[in-house]
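2 proteins. here.
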Amino acid sequence: MSNTIQQFIKSLKNKPSSDHVFNPWYDCDPDNDENTEAPNIRKAHLQYYLEQRKDSARYLLIAEAIGYQGGHFSGIAMTSERILLGHQHLKGIHPHHVFQHHTPKRTSHPDKRPKGFSEPTATIVWGSLLQMQLNPYEFVLWNAVPWHPYQPSHPNGMLSNRTPTSYELEYSWPFLLSFLKLFPSSRVIAIGQKCAATLQSLRLDCPVVRHPANGGATQFREQIYAFLSKDNAS
């Protein structure tokens, strides 16, 4: 593994001091993880995912924060357990699209979701990019806030999402910049206006596409297709 990538993943241990932020790579979810090895499994997933793209990534697609149905259990932004476990193959998404030479494992307890958690955003983003015949090792998915903000008052506890606070967004800036330095030649694409605002705060000008959540799937597909078609034609 690359020392730089290892150092970056090690730095992710330092999540914000605000309450109710889950760290997939260093925290155990006692109510939902299958066992205490879950953080190490998620860490290995992320290491293989980033390492196998360090010399090939052309695009960095960045959204706002990790969700409980995605990176919370997979360890990878906008990527669900169900993708890693091969249960989205009917939609053309396979585990080897995420990483190779390492067997992915589930980290959520099977009683929660027999086939693992499935995130609509993950399925839409991966499915759209693969349908455009983009090499999966030419794009990296990430979040402006790399951890998972959840709602403590929600009946399902950590199985919930919330918008990051201003403090959490600003706290995450150095981590986002460190991530971008891992892929210095890649083009950045913001997924959603909230992420775009964060990137603008860092004086990073980049194209913005609609977030696929809340009815935005069609617009996301149209906009990402238009951008990639134009970029590859130039």
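next one coming up
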Amino acid sequence: MEDRLFLFLGSFSHEPSFILLSHLAISVIIVFIIAKLATKSMEVVPTGTQNVVEAYLQGVISMGADVLGEVKARKYLPLIATIGLLVFTSNAIGIIPGFESPTSNINFTLSLALIVFVYYNYEGIRENGFKKYFGHFAGPVGWLAPLMFPIEIISHISRIISLSFRLFGNIKGDDLFLLVLLMLAPWIAPLPAFFILLFMAFLQTFIFMILTYVYLAGAVMMEEEH
């Protein structure tokens, strides 16, 4: 609780839920502002925020094209691009002294992981049918099904833990590192650390996005996988 004394919103309440929801609301507002600035005056030759956002969206499509193909990458663009913007904003806000990253809270990262988990399984069932999708879990050889099916179920559930704890652990560690650094040397010394933390915010966002694409590919492209 002591570290919340360094937060601007900590002067209102030290409740973890208040801190999380407040900083998450700030992150969401920032994402909405970016989206509004990018679309308020669309031009054929993009400039300013529109240019940056279009470059970002093209990068997301290119990322997914290597995994799913361009058609399906565009299909899932709204989900992946939104997750990317929200996760990066939530990561980066904690770099600003006086704020805390929502992604440094396991409740938020677990919620994101559950959304991805439910969505890619839903897409797998919708694309392949319930029987074929879960039949894939049994493996290619019938007599191995009693062994393969539980392993596949555990493997898929472990993805929730992997997605949520990887993001939470890295960002929480970054926040604690910055907190200690600001306490020991609050002025010039932390400046190089800000660039490292910004890079980590990018990296963890990229990992979350590419894993989401990979899980979607495994769910909707089972025949290609074989």
